Amino acid sequence: MEIEGPPHTGPPGDAEGVARVPLNHGKEALIDVADLPRVAAHRWYVACEDGRWRAQRGERVEEGGRTRVRIIRMASFILGAPPGVHVAHVNGDGLDNRRANLRLSTPREDGARRRLNRNNTSGYRGVSWHAPLGKWRAGIVRRPLKLHIGYYATAEEAARAYDDKARELFGDGAYQNFPTAPRGALPSPARRNAPGTDAATNRG
User: Cβ distance 101 to 11 under 8 Å?
Assistant: First the structure.
């Protein structure tokens, strides 16, 4: 396993060094050097789920007189996550298992971090074109409800409004269209336009 000197570019809080753990399919996982002894004691492989690569291993367990294989993900192993508790990757890279990039989360919070749907046309999470008003609409799903945020003149404004609402509902680990944007510096939703008015200028 290769150990790097300077931290790998990524979220703040990296350790002084980063270790690269070779996997199958030419992939590798990033971990903090401090976790290398524990991780290196096991054999890991990659698996693709929901379009994202993750490092994991199998462990044989006996249950009711039968042997089955329990899947243990590297991220959960590193954090010591209890059964049933999810571990989210802040930057969306399932093979970046440095502690600064890992966060315990609930299934609902995981849903807030999912990637854009393939049929997304705005390029932003939670933003769609609302033809009747000629504006971009921002909305967010908090199961079982789909919450309306507001109408905006540009897709970017709607995306920033989504980010603010996502942080409010799901915390700082929620998916963000603009991860480095200051919190709260967002435009106000546009008012509904009367027939015949210019949607782009009625932004009150």
Answer: yes
DSSP reduced 3-state for 131: coil
Question: Do the bridges between strand 135-142 and strand 102-105 make them parallel or antiparallel, or are there none, so unpaired?
Answer: unpaired
> In the chain, where do the E strands start and end?
2-4, 18-22, 28-32, 45-49, 52-63, 66-73, 86-89, 102-105, 127-130, 135-142, 145-152
Give how far the C-alpha of residue 128 lies from the chain's centroid of Cα atoms, to the nearest Å.
20
**Is the pLDDT reported for residue 187 higher than 80?**
no
- What tens digit of pLDDT does each residue of 51-107 get? 778 999 999 888 788 888 989 999 999 999 988 788 888 777 889 999 988 888 755
CA–CA distances in Å: residue 42 to residues 29, 38, 162 = 13, 8, 41
Pairing of strands 45-49, 28-32: unpaired
